[in-house]
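Reviewers of the previous submission asked for a worked example of the structure-prediction workflow described in the proposal, so we include one complete record here. The input consisted solely of the amino acid sequence. No template or homolog information was supplied to the procedure at any stage.
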Amino acid sequence: MDLVDNPGMETLGYGSFAPTDNVTGYNMVQIQDALRKQKTLHNGEINFFTTTKMIQNKISNHFLIIGLLFSLLVMGAPSCKKTTDHAMEGEFYFVNSTSHQITFSTGFEKYNLAAKATGPIFTVSDIGDKEITAGSFYTPFIKEKAYSIPQQPIIIRFDNQKCISINGNSGTHNILAINSYNNEKIGERKYRFIYTFTEEDYNRATLCQ
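From that input alone, the workflow returned the following structure tokens.
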């Protein structure tokens, strides 16, 4: 069959016909196809730039995380500064200047002091700063308790009749308080400490329970 020319039809090839826009003279299918291709290209550009931006954001986030981890490692790394422990030693003496026998105990240890006698003697070894003073030391009864106040009170007994209960290390005359001891420096890092029981201690003691 012969094809008949028609001003409203245009041959597209492959034996197909489509209406033509009378105003522009362009085939409507071609116009729609061109618009579709333009939209696809536009979307492709948007997708390309959006994808690129997402990749850039991910890379930035990765570098940010790496930077934070590095900062934490630097902050948490042990200091290279070398610290040195310095040994020190203290000798502790207890003097009974009263006319009464004194007994007291800490933990499983029990001590006896005859009237007008000196003893017992403790040697306490410890570590401290490069520069030390008498106040750098702990009394034997605190050090043996891992540097803490004994949970049970220390009972000072005079002739086993009058007693003083020691709770804590406060007060001006207390065998737990290092400032209640007379002290003397006898070596570069060695001190002698002397605690004296007096008649005043006996006078303030109360009847034992």
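Residues 1-26, 41-46, 48-52, 78-82 have pLDDT under 50 and may be disordered. We consider this example representative of the routine output the project will generate in years two and three.
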